[in-house]
Amino acid sequence: MAILEAQNLWKTFGRTAVLKNIDLTLEKGQALSIIGSSGSGKTTLLRCLNFLEQPDKGIIRVNGETLFDAADPSTQSEASIRKKRLHFGLVFQSFNLFPQYTALENVMLAPKLLAAEQPNFKAGKKEIYARIEAQAKELLNQMGLSSRMANYPHQLSGGQCQRVAIARALALHPDILCFDEPTSALDPELTGEVLRVIRELADQNTTMIIVTHEMAFARDVADHVIFMDEGVIVEQGDPEEVFENPREERTKQFLSRYKQG
Amino acid sequence: MKLILEQMPVVISALNIGFIQTLKLFFVTLLGAFPLGLIIAFGSMSRFKPLSCVTKLIVWVVRGTPLMIQLLIIYYFPGLILNNPIWGGGETGRFLAASTAFIFNYACYFSEIYRGGIQSVPIGQEEAGLVLGMKKSQIFFKIKLLQMIKRIVPPMSNEIITLVKDTSLSRIIALQEIIWAGQSFLKGSHGISGAIWPLFFTAVYYLIFNGILTLLLGRLEKKLDYFR
């Protein structure tokens, strides 16, 4: 069974249809990359999956459970959406780290707040916090940031900030980790260190959706590629296929622009 | 000069009593206006149109008219026009009326500063909190509040220092604060009359107190310098 199924997603802003009839499935442990020019709806799609935007039509299922159905208001209450968001993690283009917290605190904040909602929290508070801290430290180690845990975001480079943001998202063990152009705000020299981390996650079979303009990376790391244009999925398939033998004219045009550049 | 030195002990002790009333009004105003300002800020940012319109109207009226007139209306209107002297007589009544006017007036100014502070926190901070499964209240208290405080400390410091001096306006309803105490020596108080220097001397109290406040608020600003 697919871990993620999105059916017939539609989203309009005012009179502009940004997503038109998007169907999407993702298998557990797979990496999906979404490519396409700016304004093609890639980011809106990720935002819909993370419930930052509400689709006008369509269904989102995770592990067979219907998380969202535009036709069923009972799936749309604020409180239930908060829990459903936890199936997904989202890494933003602009990091959005919390500036008043250190790298370590950024990673620990949400797990601590969620732990406090558990019924047996008071009794085991110390151990729970210790476990959360150990896990956060391990994640930051994994991101190559062991010497940076006590630093505030403004003391870190863009690449380091983005790696903290990845650790922060991983700390909640999302079923599906989404990346929204994770390297677009970075200098070329810092891009590599972030891509390396994402590649390692792919190697560990983390289920991921990656919106990116890094074509070579999208091709290498992904098990499946989607090309979007003007709110529709124009073409999708195996990365080799899509990049080497695109069937659709629009895909060819888009890819040739990258090959020239 | 010799005369002034003779009058000094009596005058100082009277001014001290007046200044205590000044400080009381200052702190009560802050205590009331800090939270009320936040409520007004949320009101004016509400997506419920009637609420935000009414709040904006109130803020416009309060900021658009002199505090001195507001003091006079709040103190005299209930008793003289409505025949319902809600404030009661004496110094307590005057203090209640003055506190009400000051809290309301300053809450309106604070609300605009809060609004600027809240709106200056990037939307990405809220979105990051949301995707991490936080509640709206957690996002406000754990993420946005401190960033907002950092941004509003400088404009707030300005208002707070202005408030110290604005308390003197309560002289208009004869609240016995320091200006009233200084002025009383013109008309014969504690056996001294025709002395104008005590009134001038009150300025020293304001100056010293504002000096202390400036230092404290500067320190707070420095304390919040650890993040950007």
What key attributes describe this structure?
heterodimer, A: about 260 residues, alpha/beta, Rossmann fold, six-stranded mixed β-sheet, four-stranded antiparallel β-sheet, 9 helices, 10 strands, B: about 230 residues, mainly alpha, MetI-like fold, about 0% strand
Describe the protein.
- The complex is a heterodimer of chains A (261) and B (228).
- Chain A has a single domain, classed as Rossmann fold (3-Layer(aba) Sandwich).
- Chain A has a six-stranded mixed β-sheet with strand order 6-7-8-3-9-10, with helices on both faces.
- In chain A, α5 (158-170) packs parallel to α6.
- Chain A is built from nine helices and ten strands.
- Chain A is an alpha/beta fold and 261 residues long.
- With 228 residues, chain B is mainly alpha-helical.
- Chain B has a single domain (2-226), classed as MetI-like fold, CATH 1.10.3720.
- In chain B, 79% of the residues lie in helices and 0% in strands.
- The longest helix of chain B is centred in the first third of the chain and has 44 residues, at 2-45.
